[in-house]
Amino acid sequence: MAWSELFRDSVCAKLEIHDSDEKEKPFYRDLTDDDFLKIKLCLSRLLNWQMWKAPKGNEIDASLAGNKSYLKDWFKNKGLTTGFIMGAPE
C-alpha cells in the first residue's frame, strides 16, 4: 500500500492533477498518449528502484513486513519518494 500511494501521488503530479477529489481516481479520465508516456516513466522509475534488487534477507525484507507509516518513512529515507519516481536523481 505504501508504494502505491507514492506512485499515485507521482502520477497525479506528472499529470498536473491538483484537485483532491480527482487525485482519488487519477485513471478515471481520458488519457492522451503523452499522459501514458508520463505514467510509464513513473512506473519504470518505481519498478527499477535499486532496493527491489537487494539480496534476499536484506533490510527491505524486514521493512516490508512493517506498518504502512513506518514503511513510507523507510522508503523516504532510502530515496524512494514521489520526486524520485517523477525523475529526480537519486
Helix content: 55-70%
Radius of gyration: 14 Å
Major pleated sheet? none
Q: What's the structural domain tally?
A: 1
Helix tally equals 6
Unreliable runs, pLDDT <50, ≥5 residues? none
The amount of beta strand, in percent, is under 5%
Give me the secondary-structure category: mainly alpha
Span of the ends, CA to CA: 22 Å
Number of strands: 0
**Overall pLDDT level:** 83
Write the H/E string, N to C.
HHHHHH
Backbone shape: globular
What features would you describe in this structure?
The chain has one domain. 60% of the residues lie in helices and 0% in strands. It has helices at 2-14, 20-24, 33-47, 59-64, 68-77, 82-86. The protein is globular, with a radius of gyration of 14 Å. The protein starts with a helix and ends with a helix. 12% of the residues are buried. The model has no long low-confidence stretch (mean pLDDT 83).
Topology:
Blueprint: H1 2-14, H2 20-24, H3 33-47, H4 59-64, H5 68-77, H6 82-86
Helix pairs in contact: 1-3
How would you briefly describe this protein structure?
The chain is an all-alpha fold. It has helices at residues 2-14, 20-24, 33-47, 59-64, 68-77, 82-86. α1 runs antiparallel to α3.
List keywords for this structure.
single chain, mainly alpha, globular, 90 residues
